Prior knowledge:
Blueprint: H1 5-42, H2 46-60, H3 74-89, H4 92-95
Amino acid sequence: MRINFKVCAWVLAIGMGGAISGGAARVAAAPALYGQERDDDYAKNKYYQQGVRDGREDREHNRDHYRKRHFKKDEDHRAYEAGYQHGHEHDDHHDQR
Length: 97
């Protein structure tokens, strides 16, 4: 029984290509899901809530990032910025009417 190595090489190459591209698609989709989960996690963070309040206040007074805050941890700064962007871009009170 003789094995055709040319056919085996093609089958192996196609199988590996599919596995690699499938893994790459999963990795590419992960940041979008990660960011969505991150906003949910931040909702209970006091710096996120402060950012939402500051963002709303700046939107109401037609200001662009009026306050410059400094944080000890990068994670606190990211939470504040996410909250600020949410507060500045969304009119939650107006949506409820």
